[in-house]
Amino acid sequence: MVKSILITTLILLLFGLIVLSSAGIVEGHKKFDSAYYYLNRQLLLGVLPGLGLMFLLSKIDYKFWKKMSLLILIGALFLLAMVFMPSFGQGLKGATRWISLGGFSFQPSEILKLALIIYLAAWFGNRDERIKNWTYGMAPFFLVLSFVAVLLVLQPDIGTLVVITLISIGIYFFAGSEIKHILIILSVIAVGFVAMIWLEPYRFDRIKTFIDPNTDTRGISYQLNQSLISIGSGGIFGVGFGKSTQKFGFLPEVVHDSIFAIVVEELGFVGGIFLVILFLTLAFLLVRTANNISDKFGKLIVMGMAVWITGQAFLNISAISGLAPLTGIPLPFVSYGGTAMMVLLAGMGIVLNIAKRA
Question: What sections of the protein cross the membrane (predicted)?
């Protein structure tokens, strides 16, 4: 099982680098006078340190993280709060989501995803049947999730909030919580999301775009329409690797949340399905590993990683395909982002250590 998880992860990683090398070539040359700017940065700041962390963490007994779970969460929340400090926070496109230290920038919300998985796995792992109790289960869980939500809304980073909510609810469910408690929390979350959409015009615009992609095709619906053009241009086998026309300034966020559209344009329906199968294969391997683990802490970490990777992947693919509203959620292992790549690979290192004991 360890070998299968590792091989699938590395194939996903390699596939992502190959796609990024093509998707970022035009924007990299235009903005930084380097065709492979994004590929080189992804390798140097994401993949190489991430692989190092994956190897290191695969050798450390995963139970060590149970003892450190609270400190890890506090550290991640502190980093998340640092984005609001003028001397550290770095803004882009109206959102302050990055921290700049010593010439390097990183996104603390990506670190929070893994920190929250570890903390919730440790916390629920110690509660057994008490998780079904309002006082010991639902109430404190909801308070933690609410605190995280406030920090993310203030940035604002609704895409990450959606993913973290999905991860948290997933772990809460697999820990053995009461279904009625989950439904109550989901109801409150739904009301919160409706309020956020209603209060911010740009979020409401994204819903309108999702309902009717023909609304203002040169404005609020531009990204979705260009994504659909990319996907439609690919056909069954694609226009050929490196031959996308949409990456020539037409498709926004080409190396970020729109990258799946380039996958389908260049590699076709076949390439898109291949990537989906890779995500499903990894999900199957992680769920199977979790089912073979008797230790609840290890089980919940693996399930948390499965929900994170596959949930985020399908949220991204659905949004770019017009099946869900756009939220700016990146595609795991494929989209450009050093912090996201490093943290994902670190999480997979912990999973590999758990899988050795399955």
Answer: 38-58, 70-89, 101-122, 134-152, 158-175, 182-199, 267-288, 300-321, 333-355
